[in-house]
Design a protein that fits this description.
The chain is an alpha+beta fold. Helix content is about 30%, strand content about 25%. It has 4 helices and 5 strands, in the order ααβαββαββ. Strand 1, helix 3 and strand 2 form a beta-alpha-beta unit. Helix 2 packs parallel to helix 3. The C terminus is likely disordered.
Length: about 140
């Protein structure tokens, strides 16, 4: 039996709440766009949560460290994979080692969900975070 406090906890955020997340970060000095391609239905909850948290941390880094004016969030599902990418046009510098745990945390989340992540500077300026996560259900097949 679940403790009373746990019984009323809302479900963990996932892909269905990305627009709400982006809206919370938008409206300041950084213009943020969200592009989605493919249906999010059937993505395992652990993958949806990992994608949400990776976008959340990447946007936090954009606002705190980049000096960017624009950021683009893309979520594309296809071929059994979920690609999540956040690109900004800010300072073209990798955060210094030991400056925080954001990038490490994103890597751990991607790995825990069975995926990979890479990040780095963008030629001409900016920074990119790109995660590739499995979008298949536990049965090994793509869900409709």
């Amino acid at each position: 039996m679940l403790p009373a406090a746990s019984a009323h906890r809302p479900p963990a955020p996932g892909l269905e709440r990305l627009a709400e997340l982006v809206d919370r970060f938008a409206g300041g000095d950084v213009e943020i766009t969200l592009r989605r391609e493919g249906e999010p239905d059937g993505v395992p909850p652990v993958v949806g949560l990992a994608a949400y948290r990776i976008v959340q941390e990447a946007l936090t880094n954009v606002l705190r460290h980049s000096g960017a004016r624009h950021a683009a969030v893309s979520v594309v599902r296809g071929d059994g994979r979920l690609m999540v990418e956040v690109v900004d046009d800010g300072l073209s510098a990798t955060p210094p080692a030991g400056s925080g745990f954001g990038l490490v945390g994103m890597r751990e989340r991607a790995s825990a969900a069975g995926g990979t992540i890479d990040y780095g500077t963008v030629p001409g300026g900016g920074f990119r975070v790109r995660a590739e996560l499995p979008a298949r259900g536990g049965d090994g097949g793509e869900r409709p």
